[in-house]
Every structure is written in C-alpha cells, then in structure tokens.
C-alpha cells in the first residue's frame, strides 16, 4: 500500500472522476462485442436491452438472462422454494440476520417522518407524508451474496409503509435459484415477491413491467456498471435511490490509533472489489509506516487477497497530512461513503465533518459493525455524492403532499401579491384567476 503526499493524493486517489471520464476495461468491451456483434459502449448496450425488454417483456428478460448469464431459470421464486432455501441456512446465521433486522427496524422507527397541519385565521396549510406504493429492490449475485444489503434496503421501506415490496436478483447457475441467504433475507424483510433476473434486464423489468413482473415506482439497491447505467437511463420514469459506484472508506488516524486495527479496517473495505477505495489520512509518519506494514502482513492471511491487492494498487493509499485539521478538510472535499475516526477523542471532531455517508467514532465503532448490525442502513452514497445525499432511510420511501386550504381572509391578504407577480411574469391568465376572485 503506497504512501503519498497530499499533493500527489489530490491528483490520484483523492481525485473524483466524472462518469464520462471513466475508462471501460477492454475485457468489458470484448464481452459486449461478442454479445452484440459490434464494439459498442456499455451505455449503448444497456439502452438496447432496455428497449427490448420494454417491447417484448418476459421473453426479452429470459433471453438476455440466457445470453449474458447463461441462466435458463424461471422468473418467479414460489413460496415453497423460498421456504426450502431458508431451511438450508444455518440456524446461527439466521439468528444473526434476525438480530440485524431487529436493530435496523428499531433504528429507522426512530426517524421522524410526520404529517402536520397548521390552522390559523387565514385557513390551513400542511403536509401529508405518504409512502411510495411499489418499490423494487435489486440485489446482485456474484461471489459475495449481499443479503445484508437487502435487509438494509427493504426494512426501511417496510417501516415507511410501502404497500408492495419486491426483490429481483440473479440466480445461481447450479440451482437456477438465487442464493439461499438472499432468499432467507427476503423472508425476514417481508418481501411480497421474489423475481429472478440480473443486470440491465432486471432493472428494465422493474421500470417498465412485464407480463410477470409488475412495474414499480422506485428502484433501489446496489449493482455493477450495467445495472447502474440502466438505473440512470430509466430515472424519471421511476425513482431511483442513486447511482452507486465502487465502495470506499476513508480512515483518519493519529498516533493514538492501533495500526493493526486501522489496517484491518482498510483491508475489510478493499476486499469488496478491485475498484474499491481504502484511504488512510494521518498527520503521523510513524502511524503511516506502521499501518503500511500491518496491511502487508495481514493481507497474506486473507482469502480474497487478489481482489484486495488490486484495490490497494489502484485507488487506495496512505496520505501523510500536515495536521488533523488538514485531514478533515481533505475528507470533506472527498466526501467519502464511510469515514472512520481512529483518533483520540473522536467526538470532539464530529463537528468538523460536513460530507460523509456515515461517521464511525473510535476503534470500537468500526465500519464492519455498521455493515451488518449497528442499525443504520449500510447503503450509503459513493463517488462523492455524500455532498448532497445520505444513506438509504425511511424518507427515501415516502413522498410529501402539500395541503392548502385558504379562506377569503387569506385571499384578501395575499391575492394582490399573487396577481402582481403573475403580471410580472407575463402570465395574464394566472393574474385573472386571482383578480376575478378579488372582484
């Protein structure tokens, strides 16, 4: 794991690249060419899949699943298969999942999302909070079945009062069904239906609806490049939770930090993906050197060492800052998904944090606890979007309805101002709607 100066880090690991600046690996382009018969970009490939699913429904979803994933599975997991898969999960793991579910629900039930009505002499104004009716959660398959992400997304939706909550997720090739842990999480979270599909065709099915899969009002959940591009293209027709990029953690540590624990936190993040970012900011040369040595020593003990090594070599690194204050300034500029404070008296620095998906205060409040059982959703903003977005929460699954019930007194008091403003904008019909009432 390399050690960088602040200047070098700002040009490399702390630099945010725009979507259109990201280089598509040649292996991805090769696969697209084999599938489509021509060398097109991922965005165009996704556009063609979306168009086909919108036109042909189930048949297109099944065909693209066969072509891209080699899957000939059906589109629905019935109740019997769901129960059978859940029975395959070890009881100790089910208990852990249920503990996580209880804590996620308890946390989100504390979140205020309240309707209110205000009455005075001019009438009534207010706000109604109404749940979104239909939400679809996409959970990828792959080498790490992210059943925890299903709990972290579906349970806040349930707390919000979503009427219909469905899961769509790819199958395993060996069984034709999604991973048993994902199906168990679907039962624990109370999903109303489970559908089988992956990639852009799954997002298309949720957005447009097919003969089997009903269209939803909002799509949530993580995914790869193709599912993220698909979410971007259907946004507006349906709501989306965001455009998740590779996961990232930023650790700020001082000389009080345990280098072994700091290294463990960085490695835990790096094992997600070769594109994951694991960054340490510290004003201590001693801490930097000790963490660097600990990372290399611990790496040899881990199972996903090739993935971790790839992540450490690309967007990760250790940055030696002039002070803790500069470290926090750099962190706010970077706006990390996860911000871990392995410093003396971390609470005293909480006020300096402006942009982060989640803040983890001290060595006993480390990110992996947040990933699974702390309570807040671990689905957090990536790619610098923590500047304007937050973790998945109850408010992601409700909408606000304004209430306006004014009387004649209000009309006399504010009507002339409305008419003047309408005339100033050149909207004479708007003005007339006011003046006729005033007359």
Structural notes for this entry:
The chain has 439 residues and is of the alpha/beta class. The protein folds into 3 domains: 3-16 and 246-388, Rossmann fold; 79-240, Nitrogenase molybdenum iron protein domain (Rossmann fold), CATH 3.40.50.1980; 407-438, no CATH class. Helix content is 45%, strand content 16%. The chain has helices at residues 6-11, 26-36, 42-56, 58-69, 79-87, 91-109, 147-160, 180-189, 199-208, 225-234, 259-270, 285-299, 305-313, 324-334, 367-372, 408-424, 428-438, and strands at 3-5, 116-120, 123-131, 134-138, 164-169, 193-196, 218-220, 239-240, 248-253, 277-282, 317-320, 338-342, 358-361, 398-406. The strands form 3 sheets. The protein has a 6-stranded parallel β-sheet, with helices on both faces. Strands 6-5-4-7-8 form a 5-stranded parallel β-sheet, sandwiched between helices. Helix 5 (79-87) crosses helix 8 and helix 6 packs parallel to helix 8 (180-189). The longest helix has 19 residues, at 91-109.
Give a short account of the largest sheet.
6 strands, parallel
What is the count of β-strands? 14
CATH topology-level name of the largest domain: Rossmann fold
Q: Give the domain tally.
A: 3
CATH architecture of the largest domain: 3-Layer(aba) Sandwich
CATH superfamily of the largest domain: Nitrogenase molybdenum iron protein domain
